[in-house]
Design brief:
Blueprint lengths: L3 E14 L2 E14 L14 H8 L7 E6 L2 E2 L5 H10 L18 H11 L4 H5 L8 H5 L6
Antiparallel strand pairs: 1-2, 1-3, 3-4
Amino acid sequence: MPKPLVICDNLVKIYKVADLEVVALQGLDLEVMQGEMMAIVGVSGSGKTTLLNILSSLDVPSAGRCVVDGYDLTRLSQAQRIYYERYTVGHVWQQSGRNLLPELSIQENVELPQVLGGANSARRATCPGIVGTGWIRRYGQEEA
């Protein structure tokens, strides 16, 4: 039986703002299998962005456990976190000016962090993300 690609077990995230504590995630349990497609939906303030930030290691949970592709995000060293961010996940911000270079194709934009990290072409060919999906055509760029 295949193992889940993403496991969140009793995930909690509490933000402290001045003297106020804001609970962004409270006891979230989640399993996502490899190849499974899902949507994260909810009202404003329900924790969608907080969850994505934790899964991409931009933030750490206050409690609970989060494992992505075998990486326990609650226990990564700084070197492991850098490797995880460089080779396992990618960040594409809503404001494209923050992270996309207009001179490059979508595939080149997705591969750029790996190129800078010294990944060979075989490693870059495994780059998941948006390459090869309808996203490329919708934004007016042809597939390489």
